[in-house]
Amino acid sequence: METVVFALLNGLIYGLLLFMLSSGLTLIFSMMGVLNMAHASFYMLGAYFAFTLGQHTGFWFALFLAPICVGAAGACVEKWGLRKVHARGHVAELLFTFGLAYVIEELVKIVWGKFAVAYEIPPELNYSLFELFGSQYPAYRIFMLAVSIAMLAGLWYLLKRTRIGLIIQASLTHPHMVSHLGHNVPRIFMLVFAAGCALAGLAGVIGGNYLVTEPSMAFSIGPIVFVVVVVGGMGSLEGAFIASLLIGFLQTFAISIDSSFAEIFSFAGLSADGDIGRITIASLAPMLPFLLLVLMLMLRPRGLMGEREF
Amino acid sequence: MSAPALQLTDLRKNFGPAKIIEGVSLDIARGERHAIIGPNGAGKSTLFNLISGLFPPSSGTISLAGRQISGLKPHQINRLGLSRSFQVSNIFANMSVRENVRCGVLWSLGYGHSFWRNIGNLKEVQRKTAEVLEKVGLTDKADVPAVLLTYADQRTLEIAITIAGGADVILLDEPTAGMSHSETDRAIKLIEMATEGKTLLIVEHDMGVVFGLSDRISVLVYGEIIATGTPEEIRGNARVREAYLGDETEFAEMSA
Amino acid sequence: MSKGIFGKSSLAALLLSGSVLSAEAEVIKVGYIDPLSGPFGSTGDAGVKHFRYAADEINAAGGMGGMQVEVIAFDNKINPKESLVQLQKAIDQGVRFIAQGNGSSVANALTDAIAKHNKRNPGEEVLFLNYAAVDPALTNKKCNYWHFRFDAHVDMKMAGLTDWLRDQKDIKTAYILAQDYSYGRAFTAAAKSMIEEKRPDIKIVGAELHPIGRVKDFTPYVQKMMSANADVVFTGNWGTDMTLLVKAANASGHTVPYLTFYGGGLGAPTAMGQSAVGLVKQITEFHENIEASEKQMARVDDFEKTNNLDYYYERVFTLMNMLDKAVDAVGSVDVPKVAAELEGMTYETPYGEVTMRADDHQLMQPLYISTFSEGVVRDVENTGFGFKTDITIPAAATETPTTCRMRRPS
Amino acid sequence: MTDYSLDRVPDLAPSVRYKFATRVLPLLLLALILLSIPLFEPSRTWLSLFNAIGINMVFALSYNMLLGQAGMLSFGHAVYFGLGGYAAMHGMNAIENASYDGGLWAAFPMFALPLVGFAGGALAGAVIGWPSCRRAGVPFAMISLGIAELVAAAGFMFISVFGGEEGITGDRMNGVELFGLSLGPLGEVYWFIAFWTFLGVALMYAFTRTPLGKLAQAVRDNPERVQFVGYNPNRVRYLVFIAAGGFAGLAGGMSAVNYEIFTPESLSVIPSGLVLLMAFIGGARYFAGPILGAVVLTYMQSNLSDYSEAWLLYLGLLFIGMILFAPGGLAGLLLSGTTALRQSLSGKGLVRAGAFAISALLSATGVIVLVELAVRHSNGFGEAFEPFSFHLAPDQMMPWAVGLVLAGVGIGSLKVLSRQGGMGS
């Protein structure tokens, strides 16, 4: 019981953080067809911007300002970089963002130094909200929960209730149609890219102090975000949401399972001393998303909710 | 009597709720030149895609020389002797004209996926490639990258790739689309010559081409064949007139 | 870009490197092979600054055996193969002393390659001075004559931590968490056997390995520890894996001691901040609040002022000074003789006497267990927090038996 | 055989002279370079750099079989390099053991070890490629990323195979000697690397000339059409994938002998990313592109880091610059440069190429000055950037302004120039 409740709670938080990251990536992918390899780098920028801004304005302003700054950075990248390679196809765009990830990491090192920065949870939220089975539940997590749900609601409103949202939605299902609509496509692309980056930036603002703000944070979370987007189905926000939670739960549950392969497959005579028998489910937890990714692409390439195979 | 070169039996294709092909049956005899006409959106290209294996049919069967091919993959169907072209030029853009044709030749000569032979030393491949190029008149452009060809030449190359494998049944999807008059005339001559002795199924908008070239014509309207017959029969068919009522120019061409 | 100024100047430098060798015999070159770029670049960068500072000190005092010391840094990107390329580069530039510390995989590659090089190129021997790679095998199963280690290895540090545990009578259960690779496994094995040996009454309620650098949220691990009622946590984690663990522990209100090797590692105090206070203990040969002479404190201050970086690697100074002593005694850069001199050498550091054990070339030095605290005299990384000593473990108490069978060149 | 009745069939094959000039001569040139390098009596530093370059050439070319030839973007090619290398490493230890205990391996020369690597890489390609080659494009890229992460993690978990973090070591001076090479000194290892580099390059070039190689290019250009000339594009991709895995394994085997150590991180996404950079920066569209990329990037990796700690930033900028301005890579630049030179006896093209080169140099210099100043400013211990005995201190305004002006003028004129017509594409 205890384990299940904790796994659910932790999985939810982690899953929602992943969703904040992957929603931006999904938006960008579905509108522009670009799989932004540097997406996690914008997440990192969000954390660093919030750290620096927070020193002057406090956390609460930074919460709004930092994503805007990241969005602006994203817009610049789109306008002066991505747009130029657009004509050369998706692989070129993918490679461009791949290079961009390198550059952003090195720039962050130059600007903010190579070590982690002291980006901490604001004192107003740094207390334990309630106690559950003897373990404290920090208020900041509930705050993260609230922010991600607010973001989800905002995104939903934007997509379902506004004009630009309708255009974006149209492009989700009919990617080639938008250009016929007579809208200013490059401008929409720039806005969408900026918005996607801003979402990643927001995830960085609330994730950076919950986790650690350091130059390698993008590299370490980046691959997981791709897993979410692919498993959920490229271009599907609902899918990304479900996949984020799925991966969040999967990983936290796996950690609570201590059995090793030797125990599980003891009927097959697997020895606990061998390399395989030694492995426990818990130790595999961080690898499970990648296993899921490979299986999903092989068995159901359009993902959980995707409507098209890329 | 030997089996027809191509036989469609009650062929149907749905995309979700949309019924695109609704029960098409058609026999095409060996050596016949058969055209399929019909208004836009009638399902002509879908029919080609079904026959060539790009989509699996929802129901019904397709037989090639008596052998059922529905459900096979495009490359398997091609190996059985059915080759098709595309409405939009579908060539290997970054390769030279000669290499384009050579790709069409390779399988039929039995070189499969071999990686132990130098392609330059395969005399047979060279010879057949040269023959095809000569036949379609692209010899002097053999070393030009395909992407740099003129539109008409790209269409020609499209046909060249299609016939290169020596398939017995050739499907051409609007081979003259977008061509000028003189280019169209040349293209028809080319098609006549290249498909000599073969079975030809052609989708074409240019009625002049259709009536000049084909032995028989089928009219496809909203996924159904409303008439099949010789050019004369089709010209006099009332239902065909009705179907084409909205398209005066085309009908005028047809009657001409 | 590569055709710019770098292309030309590096070409010139490389062409020169061969010919200048003899002319520069007056300089002793110490080759520092560690990551200077990439994710671990920060750690390597800090190391080289310690080495350079120590070299400057020695040079100011007349150099090694009358010769000036120069520290040349080579970036190995913490990649074993790249390290071997850089090793070759260093040797060709006349480097005879190689210093390295980050990554046991690199250390294993280097010690192997240096032994082979010394065998294949007599008269051109190279010494490997290891300042931080703590895989016990380096001075046990894989020991060789050309390798000297100046950091206490896993088993020794674990012996220290479990010594502390011996006196904590109210601790009844322990949990072990480490990264899933050779060091983490060595850590787990050492923890298990030494807890068993020194406190057989303690129950090990969990021993877990997790993939290195892959876990984002350690809360599930912490909650497992809490469910198991662990009174103390042994963790081999370092870098981000440790800071994330500590933050998660603090957030969940898990207030038991976390025994670490690298709690004070560069960058960790900043990242952990308040959350680690009272929680994290470390075992090291140095932290700033150990009592020492004024001269030493002045050195620490000066180092921090000139480098804008915390003084961390006391052992780098030990290493350089012992090398200085050995070269002084030999009077030249005769590497086999210097090695012979280093064997069994004792040296007085600001924190007590240390000995290079001849059996396995492992330095025996006093170790300190300290707790991350508020209200310290000297803080780390300007965080306002610092380490307070809990206990001191004399050099002799850290000695663990070695399986090394040293083969000395005849 | 044929039912065509044509009077004459022209011989379209290129002339013997053309064939020699474009196909045989470059390989002869490579052989000549490889043979003549020892004549300059390079230092061991250079030798070990050449060895690393040779290995990376084969590795990058094998990667380009996927990217450049078959149009498959992989983020996990190091898996095959690594698995091949591990196979070779186990082979090396088997040879050593057999030299004491006897056995089949005793007769296996160390020199031929890359063959074991090839087999290992090809086998891994055959196993992993079977499921992953059923998809192309972005799904294939994502599968390769997932598999690379999984294999890299497995590398740390299965100690008996991969040796854990510290990997597996061996001694190459065992077994039967071939060509009188003991493989002890670096000079002898050079011959070993040179032999296999040449063989690898020649074989991979030959591969592009086979029916399968041509089909791979067809699949890259237009996978849909390939189906309608009788080929299954997935099958073609799969076969190319196996071959690419094999050659990557060959490079892994060369690496095993050269370094005598193999560690799991050589399986990871980092070397996979690096080989992608090599192929792309060199020019994925040209066969020789990855060769150039391997030379430049290996040199940068081993030596640029001596001069700047920001070398990764330069690498990233170079990569992005290539994508933006010269998608043909270094090979493309070189080619258009020589074409410009050849056509420019009139002078105009020469001026243009010169202007391009100068503005590229200007912007590079400007960017370098700025980056180096920023790095020193960020480190914060008052070090100055001193190229060619200039003194540029980060706490003064002047050096920053100089950098900005240089970069601004350079990039500006590059823009103007490229608006008048692209270069190197």
UniProtKB/TrEMBL annotation, chain A:
Coiled-coil region(s): none
Keywords: Amino-acid transport, Cell membrane, Membrane, Transmembrane, Transmembrane helix, Transport
InterPro entries in UniProt: ABC_transp_permease, BCAA_transport_permease
Membrane-spanning parts: 6-27, 59-82, 94-119, 139-159, 188-211, 217-237, 249-270, 276-299
Highest taxon listed in the record's lineage: Bacteria
Primary location group: membrane
UniProt keyword annotation of Transport present: yes
Membrane topology, as annotated: Multi-pass membrane protein
Subcellular location: Cell membrane
Family as reported in the entry's similarity comment: Belongs to the binding-protein-dependent transport system permease family. LivHM subfamily.
Protein name: Amino acid/amide ABC transporter membrane protein 1, HAAT family (TC 3.A.1.4.-)
Organism (species): Pseudovibrio ascidiaceicola
UniProtKB/TrEMBL annotation, chain B:
Keyword Nucleotide-binding: yes
This protein's name: Amino acid/amide ABC transporter ATP-binding protein 1, HAAT family (TC 3.A.1.4.-)
Top-level division of the source organism's lineage: Bacteria
SMART domains in alphabetical order: AAA
Organism of provenance: Pseudovibrio ascidiaceicola
GO molecular function annotations of the record: ATP binding
InterPro entries reported in the protein's UniProt record: AAA+_ATPase, ABC_AA/LPS_Transport, ABC_transporter-like_ATP-bd, BCA_ABC_TP_C, P-loop_NTPase
The organism's taxonomic lineage, starting at the top: Bacteria, Pseudomonadati, Pseudomonadota, Alphaproteobacteria, Hyphomicrobiales
Entry keyword DNA damage: no
Keywords from the named record: ATP-binding, Nucleotide-binding, Transport
Record domain ABC transporter: where: 6-247
From TrEMBL, chain C:
InterPro entries: BCAA_transport, Leu-bd, Leu_Ile_Val-bd, Peripla_BP_I
The organism's place on the tree of life at top rank: Bacteria
Key words, A-Z: Amino-acid transport, Signal, Transport
Pfam family, any one: Peripla_BP_6
Signal peptide: 1-25
The keyword Transport is assigned to this record: yes
Gene3D superfamilies xrefs: 3.40.50.2300
All copies of domain Leucine-binding protein, residue ranges: 28-371
Sequence similarity: Belongs to the leucine-binding protein family.
Protein name, entry field: Amino acid/amide ABC transporter substrate-binding protein, HAAT family (TC 3.A.1.4.-)
The species this protein was found in: Pseudovibrio ascidiaceicola
Classification lineage: Bacteria, Pseudomonadati, Pseudomonadota, Alphaproteobacteria, Hyphomicrobiales
From TrEMBL, chain D:
Transmembrane stretches, start-end: 20-40, 46-66, 78-95, 107-128, 140-163, 189-207, 238-262, 274-299, 311-335, 355-376
CDD domains per UniProt: TM_PBP1_LivM_like
Superkingdom of source: Bacteria
Cellular compartment(s): Cell membrane
Name of one Pfam family that matches: BPD_transp_2
The entry's keywords: Cell membrane, Membrane, Transmembrane, Transmembrane helix
Keyword Cell membrane: yes
Keyword Repeat: no
InterPro entries: ABC_transp_permease (IPR001851), LivM-like (IPR043428)
Topology in membrane: Multi-pass membrane protein
UniProt cross-references to PANTHER family, sorted A to Z: ABC TRANSPORTER ATP-BINDING PROTEIN, HIGH-AFFINITY BRANCHED-CHAIN AMINO ACID TRANSPORT SYSTEM PERMEASE
The protein's name in its UniProt record: Amino acid/amide ABC transporter membrane protein 2, HAAT family (TC 3.A.1.4.-)
